[in-house]
Design goal:
The chain is an alpha+beta fold and 56 residues long. The chain contains three helices and two strands. It has a two-stranded parallel sheet with strand order 1-2. The model has no long low-confidence stretch (mean pLDDT 86).
Length: 56
């Protein structure tokens, strides 16, 4: 796991899920693997998120 953690350290994943329990589960698993996460509940919010944050 050491090599894998080094490859993903600092990578950011947008989680779009309307079910809070599922969103928390996905977030927890990804964070244990070394990813940073941002969450939103709807697809519409997920589509707007990159633009609102200035991502390309």
């Amino acid at each position: 796991m050491g090599r894998e953690a080094n490859k993903v350290a600092g990578e950011l994943i947008l989680i779009v899920e309307d079910n809070e329990k599922n969103r928390k589960l996905v977030r927890d698993v990804l964070q244990v693997k070394g990813y940073k996460t941002i969450e939103t509940e709807t697809g519409e919010e997920g589509i707007r998120m990159p633009t609102a944050r200035g991502w390309r």
